């Protein structure tokens, strides 16, 4: 079952379309990494899921029910969120901030205490929030989102500005929450920050989803560069130049060189090798380049296609 589904979700500001025809699918129990460069429309999408921004077109379905004026209150009751800057009044202590959350949502004290313990902030509750580090502020914000014991947690760039240790701490927390059965949607403009924790990915570029699926599917869909080792790289380059974009890899051998060919599928690989051999350019190696997910992401969001 999907916890979140959107249907043709679109937001326009004036003539500008900032979210364009989005069909998101967030499976129950997943950690869904919502990725895209700055300005690609992640926050706007999340705000539409939380009914903070009204869609221009399309609709949002949460827990299998359409978000309408009548269902909104109930559906939002099952969602915890952290959007933009960490919340909380700086001049109040962590405990006082949590008390405000407890009262405004009419929660039990035990619920608030559990949320604070989950983010490992119990010892910091007597400090004023303005004395917290950024990581502590983020954790307090997550505790606020968790206090209502949501089924879905929506976190907009919770790792923004954190040092590597702080990022790892948030990752560990998300893994723990996912193990408890909470579905987590987390946005970031840096793949490496959420790659290790997200099992599903949605990649946004200029308001459109350019990939949605599992991490493995992302790799499978994006063919790694083909590397061809040949003892006559110039000759091989000439043979292929008209047919395909070729570059001579910097890792050329003394006795020859390596050609790098992007976006080549298996049948084309077979044809290329045949062409080279027929043209007298000996081939002594054909391989695929190992690529990192970061590389795939950069390729996709800089206009590359799947
Ligand atoms: N209220 C608004 N009025 C007009 N334009 C807006 C408004 N809110 C957002 N935008 C524009 O919509 C685009 C998408 O913004 P959004 O904040 O959703 O992107 P984002 O992917 O979350 O980026 P970032 O990581 O920088 O927050 C941006 O170009 C932004 O300037």
Give an overview in words.
This is ABC-2 type transport system ATP-binding protein. Pfam families: ABC_tran. GO terms for molecular function: ATP binding; ATP hydrolysis activity. Keywords: ATP-binding, Nucleotide-binding, Transport. This protein has 306 residues and is α/β, with parallel strands linked by helices. The chain folds into two domains: 2-220, P-loop containing nucleotide triphosphate hydrolases (Rossmann fold, 3-Layer(aba) Sandwich); 223-290, Alpha-Beta Plaits. The chain has eleven helices and 15 strands. It has helices at residues 42-49, 72-76, 94-104, 109-118, 134-146, 164-179, 191-195, 215-221, 233-241, 266-278, 293-301; strands spanning 2-13, 16-22, 25-27, 31-35, 57-62, 65-66, 79-82, 152-156, 183-188, 200-205, 208-214, 226-230, 247-248, 257-261, 283-288. Strands 7-8-9-4-10-11 form a six-stranded mixed sheet, sandwiched between helices. Strands 1, 2, 3, 5 and 6 form a five-stranded antiparallel sheet that branches. The two termini are 26 Å apart. Adenosine-5'-triphosphate (ATP) binds next to α1.
Describe the structure concisely:
With 306 residues, the protein is α/β, with parallel strands linked by helices. The protein is 35% helix and 26% strand. The chain has eleven helices and 15 strands.
